[in-house]
Structures are given as C-alpha cells and as structure tokens.
Amino acid sequence: MTFFDPEDPIFAGHFPGHPLVPGVILTEALAQTAGIAAASIYPEKEQPLFLLSAIRGMKFHRAARPGETIHLRADKLAQVDNLLQFGVTATVDNVTVAEGQLVLAVAGRNATRTARE
Cβ(92)–Cβ(78) under 8 Å? Predict the structure, then answer.
C-alpha cells in the first residue's frame, strides 16, 4: 500500500490543477513491490539485488491521484535462470488503476555492494 502526499513537488507540473501520479512513479512502486516479494524467500542478510529489466504490457486504466490510498500487488508468474516475471496490479478502492508484467533480474549480493558504493 502506498500514499502520495498531495503537497509533494512532483505534482506541481503533473498536471497543474489536475494532479495525478505519474505512470513511471506508479510503475516504480510496483517494481519495488515485486522486489520485496522476490527478496522475501531469502534470509535478510543474503538478499540479492533485484534490477528491473523489462516492463511488459503495462496499462493504466485510470489516473491515480495524490491523496488516494493505492494498493500494490505483485505475483510471481515464472522464473527462468536469474529472471523473475511478476504480474503486478495497482488498485484504488478495489478498482484497478494499473496492471502489467515486470521482469526482475537477480544481480547477486556482490552487485548490491557495488551498486550502492
């Protein structure tokens, strides 16, 4: 679940008088949700870094607005080697606002340290 504060500066230009959560921000929130789901099968100290590697068929059915509570869901659909595919959905008041598929790549623990340095 996530909430975007109506006073957040990202809404100043997106769009004046009719603010909405940018699709790229909503997609990132869904990717983070998929990453949390993927990491949950690993012990905390052994969790690898997951990188967004593909966005497939992302659709935005209606605008998500600042101040709305957005429920985020990620369901693992498949895994091939180090690629994990998730079906993702964002809903507001039980109405789907966005859905699609995201692919995450497992980068490994060493990549975590390198990427953050």
Answer: no
Choose the catalytic residue: 14, 18, 61, 71: 14
Would you call 25 exposed, middle or buried from its count of C-beta atoms within 10 A (0-12, 13-18, 19+)? middle
Distance CA 57, CA 5 (A): 28
14 annotated active-site: yes
Q: What's the CA angle centered on 86, arms 39 and 44, to 5 degrees?
A: 5
Tokens of 25: 């921000």
Mind listing the pLDDT tens digit for each residue in 31-63? 999 999 999 988 989 999 999 999 999 999 999
pLDDT for 16 equals: 84
